[in-house]
Amino acid sequence: MLKTKNLLAAAIIGLCLIEANTAFGRDVSVGLSKVQDLSQAIASENKNAIANFEQGINLYKQGDLKGAEAAFRKAIELEPNFSEAYTALGNTLDDQGKPQEAIAHYKKAINLNPKAPGAYFNLGLTLARLNQLEPAIAAYKKTLSLDPKYAKAHYNLGNALYEQGKLTEAIAEYTEVLRLEPTYAPTYTRLGNAFYAQGKLTEAIAQYKKSISLDPKYANAHYNLGNALYAQGKQTEAMAEYTEAIRLEPKNPIGYNALGNAFYAQGKLDEAIAQYQKAISFDANYVDAHYNLASVFYAQGKLTETVAQYTEVIRLKPKHAEAYTGLGNAIDDQGKPQEAIAHYKKAISLEPDFALAYYNLGITLGREQQVDEAIVNLKKARQLFQAQGNKEMVEQVDELFPKINNQTN
Question: Which of 157, 161, 245, 341 could form a Cys-Cys staple with 166, CB 3.0–4.6 A?
């Protein structure tokens, strides 16, 4: 009775792939273009506040966060109602890893000037980074209620909606960005990701290609185009895009991981291993690359190496159910069935609907003459496989029942 191996970790096309171009990031110069207007709002004796504010903006752009922070604080000391300085100070604090302090300053800016869209926008960015998507979305929407043509807000609202799985709404926001800023390449890639998530590969590919036509050096677009082509079964074309992404960003591990998956699918295991190891060389904590490397080692029968890689996955991500199942397979093959059973059960505790874990647990229990428990787990596996529409595995489970029952006769 054969266990079922784990699949490779899927290629990821989430937010982490779209951050290379930061043009639509935080509004770092909020209020800078309105210094003349500020002079009317701020008492003439506090013109030094404006000078400190301008100095802070310049220092911020130069990367001198401490200097910028001091300048913004001085501006606020000179003029306590200087809302733009509170927003700018929030930016500086957030970049120094102090998001809660940043949020407090954005909110102070909003209290002082409720009609300034920049403070709401930057508040939204910080909240989104903290994965507080609902309040981030509310902040972006408030920004847009004040300035409907604020392209950055539409873009980041689209990102937050995408993260929530609200793909139709995200697509609407990205489409609006393109109406306002038709030459911004990352938006086409984001739009492509949304279509990809909807299973509309042809539409996704069109968007990725448009992104590349605007910015041929945009590695993320090449990478995501590779994913879409790979999903269409066009492995050669996909590998060409992954290779181009690697050429453009040779220290970005995701391209190597994806290229490794493509080699694995072609049965070129040594080449796959080389790519996964290259990915890990650039990011030792890259969970998917360790997991995929373990899967290839297992396919080669290298059990010691397999165990080491799955163990590393679990160290990095203790709730990785698939890694516990893979580890169970390898340890069972090493002749340690009771340890394997413990790992399968751990996988199930982490992911109660993990059909493969129930299946492999049932097989191992059956081999250990624990027939009643084996049948319970195989029945659960069958139920889950049937719900998934996996007829092949349902039939495989059905074939196992009489074999296990015969063990008691």
Answer: 161
What are the structure tokens assigned to 50, written together?
């404006």
- Full-model pTM: 0.84
Query: Tokens for 297?
Result: 């080692």
pLDDT tens digits, one per residue of 188-211: 999 999 999 999 999 999 999 999
In a 13 Å sphere around the CA of 65, the CA atoms on its Cβ side amount to: 9
CATH class of the domain defined by 194-300: mainly alpha
- pLDDT score of 146 more than 90: yes
Kindly report the number of other CB atoms within 10 A of residue 10's CB atom.
9
The answer to whether the Cα torsion of 185, 191, 196, 199 is positive or negative is negative
Residue 277: both structure tokens together: 């190891």
One-letter amino acid at 8 equals L
Q: Which residues make Cβ contacts (< 8 Å) with residue 136, sequence separation at least 6?
A: 124, 125, 127, 128, 156, 160
Kindly state the DSSP code that residue 9 receives in the 8-state scheme.
P
Q: In whole angstroms, how large is the CA radius of gyration of the chain?
A: 27
Q: Is 66 exposed, middle or buried (0-12, 13-18, 19+ CB in 10 A)?
A: exposed
The CATH 1.25.40.10 domain(s) of the chain lie at 194-300, 305-409
Q: What angle do CA 217, 220, 222 make, to 5 degrees?
A: 70
> For residue 137, how many other CB atoms are within 10 A of its CB?
21
pLDDT at 380 over 50: yes
Architecture per CATH, domain 305-409, reads as Alpha Horseshoe (1.25)
CA dihedral defined by 60, 65, 71, 74, rounded to 10 degrees? 140
Average pLDDT over the chain, rounded to whole? 90
Q: What is the mean pLDDT of residues 268-285?
A: 98
| Spatial distance between the Cα atoms of 398 and 381, rounded to a whole number of angstroms | 11
Residues 59-118 pLDDT 10s: 999 999 999 999 999 999 999 999 999 999 999 999 999 999 999 999 999 999 999 899
